[in-house]
């Protein structure tokens, strides 16, 4: 993957807000805390890793933008021709923003609510191929009726339940072909889609491989049943970050989806999908107090900055609300964000580790449990590049806004 000049990707000044860009570059010692930071060097490294894997497996990679919700991050994932990559979205607000940004190949991977179909049709009329997802006859009838009324096909995928995690039809469900026929007769059947949500609890490489095989087999079996009924299935889509990195054979699959991988997080590191050194998202906080009698350091970054996610609590190593690094991103051994109130973070040392001396005003970075949830607490990202060497606080070479809303 060719390394882009991130300043040509940047859409906003280095400082968020209504004021024009200043001539100088900020450092992480300057913006008011707490704020989110993205390391573009790690994003590119993570993106290249999965892009190579998808190429080796012979499938199209359709990144899920629900994690970063950033056109600037997606611009780093362009194909070799420089064209915008196909993406998966989790909200219609994302679909509209990415369409405005030049993306014309989108999958809205949340079950469609009929009242949202006018927004879908508006994007289709703009020339954006926006696929919708469903798993019921009622949804299929609503899509077919809307498509006929508009005189416009609505590309639709049937969600397949591969592991009982959430929605979808089991591959053997008799309703599968009935739903497929309703969609096909309206010119809307586009394929099948599966997501191995239970893979986020697969703690060994073998368990993740099995989850990837189960995900593939469910989607391919559903596609074969539809084809046996004389129905077209052009797209067979699978993916989650754990299974995308574990799959060894995607025969019968046409595309791979994943989203968390651009940033990664402590849950993924705890599963063994990545290393802590791969985490591209962090939150800068400031030390605002000390309670030595309780073994605590207080910061101004509470759950409003980090989210309430405690996804590592069920893993072998509980990372609290996040691991702590210095401003340069170096881990402070044994220091963990173990508690949070709305605007206060509490740092403590693991057993056998001394609490470090961190004076009032010290800036730190917290690595999150769940990148999607932590990113959602912020309007955008101050961008650093850890491949650049220098002295002093890291430079924030760009500011990338996030898409918000639904």
Automatic annotation (TrEMBL):
**Keywords, in A-Z order:** Isomerase, Lyase
InterPro entries recorded = Ala_racemase_N, D-amino_acid_metab_enzyme, D-ser_dehydrat-like_dom, D-ser_dehydrat-like_sf, PLP-binding_barrel
Any Pfam family the entry gives? Ala_racemase_N
Q: Which domain of life is it from?
A: Bacteria
* Entry GO MF terms: alanine racemase activity
Family, similarity comment: Belongs to the DSD1 family.
Query: What's the protein name?
Result: Alanine racemase
